[in-house]
Write a structure and sequence with these properties.
The complex is a heterodimer of chains A (292) and B (277). Chain A has 292 residues and is mainly α. In chain A, 78% of the residues lie in helices and 0% in strands. Chain A has 11 helices and no strands. Chain A is globular, with a radius of gyration of 23 Å. Chain A starts with a helix and ends with a helix. Chain B is 77% helix and 0% strand. The radius of gyration of chain B is 23 Å and the shape is globular. Classes of the chains: A mainly alpha (292), B mainly alpha (277). At the A-B interface, helix 1, helix 2, helix 3, helix 4 and helix 7 of A face helix 1, helix 2, helix 4, helix 5 and helix 6 of B.
Chain lengths: 292, 277
Amino acid sequence: MKWETIFRKLLIFVAALLVLVIIGILITLIIESVPSIKALGIKFLWSKTWDPVQNIYGALPFLIGTLLTSFIALLLSLPFSYSVSIYLGEYNPKGWLSNLLKNSIELIAAVPSIIYGFWGLFVLVPVIRGIEMKIGVAPYGIGITTASLVLAVMIIPYAASLGITLIRMVPSALKEGAYALGATRFEVIRSVVLPYTRTGLFAGVLLSLGRALGETMAVTMLIGNTTSIAPSFKELIFGPSNTMASVIANEFTEADHTEYLSALVELGLVLFFVTVIINLIGKRIITRFTQS
Amino acid sequence: MKIRNTKSTLFKGLIVFLAFLITIPLIIVLLYIIKQGVMQVNWHFLTHVPAPVGEPGGGIANALVGSIIMVGIAAVIAIPVGILSGIYLSENPSTKLAYYSGLCVDILQGVPSIVIGIVVYLWVVKPAGTFSAIAGSVALAIMMLPIVIRSTEQTLRLLPPSLKEAALSLGVPYHRVIIKVIVPCGFSGILSGIMLSVARIIGETAPLLFTALGNSFLSYSLKKPMESLPHLIYTYATSPYDDWHNLAWGASFILLMFVLILNITTKLITRKWNIQL
């Protein structure tokens, strides 16, 4: 009998440990960002200058960089992730071709991000540089465009694999009803399948967005890592920039005084909150969708 | 009617085209890494540490050893905790604690890996005063947890309740039912979750940047900085020397092979398991 109680207690302890880890992460991030929050307040988020030497910290350039790269990547990836979801969910749910495509999509997520970054740096950057020379902008090669392109490929699997599952869950009675009324396949997809799965597909998009916001290595290698905001929109899109995750990756080990380190941890805290909220909303929608 | 049918066919064409188009970047990346990397790999490459700039030869032994040690320790930490939490979540689905730990697993899954790096730096590196392999392992273990937990939980939920009831009715104590009946029945599902999580953390760079740091020498000490495959790729890929780029291509090839083998084995296990069910 004694062992049984110990085992039950152990299970409870481990489950509670998980909660403690998350609370610990949150508290650590908050405590370490206190010096920076005290010194700069909410202004941290929209002042433009990031100059550790002068002890001035403003996160706006990185916020803009993060949001731009993530949303461009998301927009680029959407047609593809929806197509994959519709193709594997509706047109071709079984068979070797379907399995092959599904496994390759999963493989896209399995390849480490450092490998995408390395490949992008040596193959994609020269290509983009060539294009930039043709269209007459400064040929950096690295920057938001390059980073978003690679990021777009990397985040497709997250929206797609959820989309496939959800589209397969559409009750066939609904689809058959529409067919019986004389609808074509396209009309069934447009007016039955997509409306039925709309919220679920949106949750998939949120999961992709969460990935894109927090992605570090591939973006760090391709974005150019500058701390200033480009003066014009054209330069912003094609020139070097920076994201919150990559500024942390680049500068964290160089942070030699408390305020600097604290400002970087505060960036981490912001990143933590944003990605966690986006993910939780996504998960909540999925749970509600699969239960109803 | 004809127009509507044409529209339907055109739409299908577009969907099929876009769906298969995204495999092209994957194929290009894989082929490029294999082409660049396979030339570099030989016995010397696997058993020597990187050579200084300008000297021929050199290999990735320090990173290979480092990755294996750190991933191994991370697995030793994360697997027991992950499996036990998974058991708790599947056994007590409606308690308050289960709700909150489930929520925490969801949160942990979404935390960017760089943030885990920061936190483990503050927890382990800063108090100890030095970057260390053990800090790297802790960061990797936290990254592993959610995958192990979710796969354990979902596998065990699929098992028929009669299994547990039969064992309990024979008078077997609860902990023995779990250890001797429930876990062995879901073993392949749990194993595939573990392998997936290893495949994921072996390529993680961001949490290692400020924890294990990196080391250009072969080191077995857990209290000292240690090199890892992804970190070696990052350092050498962003260096200006061609020799070092070649070293990084070779390392990428090895890393890719690890990830591919782990993923394919997992696929085979889950397929086999599905048939048995």
